[in-house]
Amino acid sequence: MPALSALPFLKPAQLRSPRSPPGGQRRHTLPASEFRCLGPGDAASVFEIEREAFISVSGDCPLHLDEIRHFLNLCPELSLGWFEEGRLVAFIIGSLWDQERLSQAALTLHKPQGSAVHIHVLAVHRTVRQQGKGSILMWRYLQHLRCLPCARRALLMCQPFLVPFYQKCGFQALGPCQVTVGDMAFVEMQHAVRGHAFMRRNSGC
């Protein structure tokens, strides 16, 4: 039976492949899911997600809008955003640090000669939480760092209730962090970044 007679309610034009729209021009469609480094133009979207994620929990944000722009200008390669159909749904922002442990200065400085990546913030949009996106994004970010010759390890500070999450991501607790914010204390955690030369040769980085 011919296809058109089997589907009498469809006109021939409606059977046209979506890859070949009328006129022979390809429709521009946004990728369903995309990971890419962030730039200053993404700062407002980043801050919107971060503000909603942190204000209700701690009363403040790890990075304010001007600080987000600062790091995305200086070291965009140390950031990673997860976009779904063009909309930012999760992100990580980092900078380089040149000491063994984090100090108060690490909150605002980027040390270009450093070999430790200080992960300032990971946040997920409220509409897609509890879907495992945070751990997936962290895994992608650590893979991304293995493509960067400068990165030897990743450091972060978190509140104690988040330690199990980062341990599942492969981080090890180093003990209490020297950094304090108001009356909040943090645990410092570390993840080794290994195999730089091998990864660069075999990952297309």
UniProtKB/TrEMBL annotation:
Record's keyword terms, sorted: Acyltransferase, Biological rhythms, Cytoplasm, Melatonin biosynthesis, Phosphoprotein, Transferase
A GO term, aspect molecular function: aralkylamine N-acetyltransferase activity
Superkingdom as given in the UniProt entry: Eukaryota
GO cellular component, one term: cytoplasm
Reactions catalysed according to its record: a 2-arylethylamine + acetyl-CoA = an N-acetyl-2-arylethylamine + CoA + H(+)
Top-rank EC class of the record's enzyme: transferase
Compartments, as annotated in UniProt: Cytoplasm
EC number: 2.3.1.87
Pathway: Aromatic compound metabolism; melatonin biosynthesis; melatonin from serotonin: step 1/2
Record-annotated N-acetyltransferase domain positions: 33-194
GO biological process: circadian rhythm; melatonin biosynthetic process; response to light stimulus
PANTHER family xref list: SEROTONIN N-ACETYLTRANSFERASE
Family: Belongs to the acetyltransferase family. AANAT subfamily.
Name the UniProt record assigns to this protein: Serotonin N-acetyltransferase
The encoding gene: Aanat
